[in-house]
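Hi there,

I know you've been waiting on this one. I reran it after we fixed the sequence typo, so this is the corrected version. Both the input and the resulting structure follow.
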Amino acid sequence: MVSRVIPVDTFDLTIFGGTGDLARRKILPGLYRRYRAGQMPEGSRIVGAARSDMDTDTYRAEVREALREFIQPAKLDRDDVEGFLGCLHYVAIDATGEKGWQELRELMRPDRVRAFYFSVAPALFGAIAERLHHHRIADADSRIVVEKPFGRDLASAQELNRTLAEHFDETQIYRIDHYLGKETVQNLMALRFGNVLFEPLWNSQYVDHIQITVSETVGVGGRGGYYDKSGAMRDMVQNHLMQLLCLIAMEPPSQFEPDAVRDEKLKVIRALDPVRPDDIVRGQYEAGGNVPSYQDDVEDPDTRTESFIAMKIHVSNWRWAGTPFYIRTGKRLRARQSEIAVVFKDAPHSIFGAEAGRHRNILTIRLQPNEGMTLVTTIKEPGLGGMRLIDVPLDMTFADALGAENEVTDAYERLVMDVIRGNQTLFMRGDEVEAAWGWTDPIIQSWSVRDDRPFRYEPGSSGPEESSMLLHRETRRWREIRE
């Protein structure tokens, strides 16, 4: 079974920050995979733009090394690599000055899709947008891609949106969140809206609660300076987990079309209740084994920034009234795991008696690792001795179910190709970003007012013990974070 690939037009893609870590690890390897798959039309070009003084040949040599580092050796076909490198150009550019802009303009060609990836600090977004406009490099059909963070609060997000809007229409702005490009996240919409089996049950009448977990084994490492100004709330909840929550909770859009989907996501954010202080648990990892503590990583013994957060959230609408959503994310936890678990209610009446025990259907959507889905169902345990019930999983791992020829596509390569196609479905709209900050800001501000301090937790654990009480007090339990 080979998937059908929607073609794209010939394009010129400029990557500002083309020598940076994100470009080397994700953007350029992803574009190579699309080239290898025949999805970069002949004549398409990729322009790296950065401060470093180098020529195109030197840049190509650097990208070659990046491909060797981040692409599996079996997929580094010599002809494909040389062909891809031949698509690359480089411009040494000053984002806040005039150096390089005329050279970049001369590289642009008519009758090509023009896309500009801002893989730089948000402080440079305005300067780059202004110069693209001033030097007439971007036209009315151009697209710009901006990376998170989209501000650090509502006021800065509004200012960023105003800055971009001075030079680009909202239809030209692609705010990228790589979680939305994951195959499993998109399959969540297919699961809900493409199968009559689930959608009738996707509401508070049948769903007891929903858990969203994104756990990491790494600490903040070299990102300590940035992370300590953000914390798990700004770095993960306001964007990644918020997007997962929206896709789980949203109403069916009238069609799978960008604004129809984003309208429904916006409704979810606007329906979120304020979160009570006792429905939030924050944590910081301690030192353990050979790893330093969070305080050591950020070089501040009095820091109150959280590396872990767990919350109980309510969506106040007819579909979800009374059904809690539990979210948690953290660093230095037991395993790297991202999943959504939809826990259905018990059967209204058990005909098998109390000895059969308590059994629930649980639908788990695994985002990473081993992308796939599992549905826990209840069956009779094989053998003699009466009606004994057990829970067994119906498991679909994409790699096994779809075959090697349908390997799961990396999120970045999918999203970059959507930019070229002009499809904004998997990108956040400006009002959506602002609504998320409008809900998040009061929570963060309340921590300062209360002089709130995070709880401590051991590295390699599931987070602070206090987070378990969010569920235990209502006779629920977190799903285990498994190695």
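Quick highlight: The chain has a mean pLDDT of 90.

Best,
R. S.
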